[in-house]
Design a protein that fits this description.
The complex is a heterodimer of chains A (256) and B (93). Chain A is 34% helix and 18% strand. An eight-stranded mixed sheet of chain A has the order 3-2-1-4-5-6-7-8, with helices on both faces. The two termini of chain A are 20 Å apart. Chain B is built from three helices and five strands. Helices cover 26% and strands 26% of the residues of chain B. Classes of the chains: A alpha/beta (256), B alpha+beta (93). The interface between A and B is medium-sized, with 44 and 25 residues.
Chain lengths: 256, 93
């Protein structure tokens, strides 16, 4: 891959000062590609932070046009683009921030039909999708293709996040062995809540891709912003998991 | 004996509170505690927690302290003074 240019070194100077990251970490981000699905309240901020951090290539997948109810949290969408495709607005905003960024804009939601292809395009997936069937499709492909998946979720003033490393941690199907019957696509949330967990998700992606720090492997971080309660909880592998049950190395530590 | 039960996300909304302290006759598996919580709450709480057979839904996460337990774990018995957390599934959007 192309080495960092002098301009890129100037742009990313402050983060290259981070111990354990440096020029090597920045080069790793430049060489990396990430799928963000979808680019709503969570995915907009994940994609924006990754674009700002100098990721080389983003694949953004989200069907549909911008609606008024998107604008409290979907920060890549703008009022003047109401009624136009979300991926077009998102691509423009991302390129305004980082014109070096390569964006593959896919005007589709992830499904069983396209998950293999979309996951195959990237090194890492950040799951920001609202429907469990979308999330399960990405999870299955990440496990089959051995690719990490950062999983972000939210409700009301609460959020949850974990990082899935196939063969090392519980996968999403271990955590949720069924499509939760009570879950609905539309739910109460503030944009500041989706933005908070999205920033954590982007940081998890940066860590996994660059080798910085310790990702949330097998750990579910939960937070309630009503009272600022943060908790780390240990998830368990399901040996009988139909997605990853035969692939585990019985390790509770990350080997990224 | 007393056990503290913390609720998260949709369960918290259905319960109307962030936590309860419930009275139990003695140490028991988490599935029994979930059924007792459902019996003490209203219908919406029971629907989220339990399936049509009265079993805890697999998509509801339960933690004893910070460690996840499986609903079919009948050997781990929650003791007096311990805290469990019931966490309903949430997603992106």
């Amino acid at each position: 891959m192309a080495p960092l240019t002098d301009h890129e070194k100037a742009v990313y100077e402050w983060q290259m000062w981070v111990p354990g990251f440096g020029e090597e970490g920045q080069q790793a981000l430049k060489d990396a590609s990430v799928l963000v699905s979808r680019i709503g309240g969570l995915g907009s901020v994940v994609a924006y932070q990754l674009a700002a951090a100098g990721i080389g290539r983003l694949v953004i997948a989200h069907a549909g046009d911008i609606k008024p109810s998107d604008l409290n949290r979907q920060l890549l969408m703008t009022h003047d683009r109401l009624g136009t495709p979300r991926v077009e607005s998102a691509t423009q905003r991302l390129k305004e921030l980082n014109p070096r960024l390569e964006v593959l804009a896919v005007p589709e939601n992830v499904s069983e039909e396209n998950a293999q292809r979309l996951v195959g395009e990237v090194d890492l997936v950040v799951d920001c999708a609202p429907l469990f069937l979308e999330r399960f499709a990405m999870n299955r492909q990440c496990v089959e293709q051995g690719k990490p998946m950062v999983d972000c979720a939210m409700y009301d003033c609460e959020f949850q996040i974990t990082t899935i490393l196939p063969g090392q941690t519980p996968c999403l199907a271990c955590v949720y062995p069924e499509d939760p019957p009570a879950w609905r696509r539309e739910f109460p949330v503030f944009g500041a809540v989706s933005g908070a967990v999205a920033c954590l998700g982007a940081m998890e992606a940066i860590k996994v891709l660059s080798g910085l720090g310790d990702p949330l492997c097998g750990t579910l971080l939960t937070c309630d912003l009503r009272d600022m309660t943060f908790q780390r909880r240990q998830l368990v592998v399901r040996d009988e998991c139909p997605v990853c049950g035969t692939s585990h190395k019985a390790s509770s530590t990350c080997a990224t | 004996m007393q056990v503290t039960v913390e609720y998260a996300a949709q369960i918290k909304r259905a319960a109307g509170v962030a936590r309860d302290v419930i009275e139990l006759d003695g140490p028991c598996p988490v599935a029994e505690i979930a059924r007792q919580v459902a019996a003490q709450g209203d219908e919406s709480l029971a629907e989220i927690l339990l399936d049509e057979n009265g079993q805890p839904r697999p998509s509801i996460l339960v933690f004893l302290g910070d460690l996840q337990l499986r609903w079919d774990d009948t050997t781990t018995r929650v003791q007096d003074g311990q805290t469990i957390t019931l966490l309903s599934p949430v997603s992106g959007g």
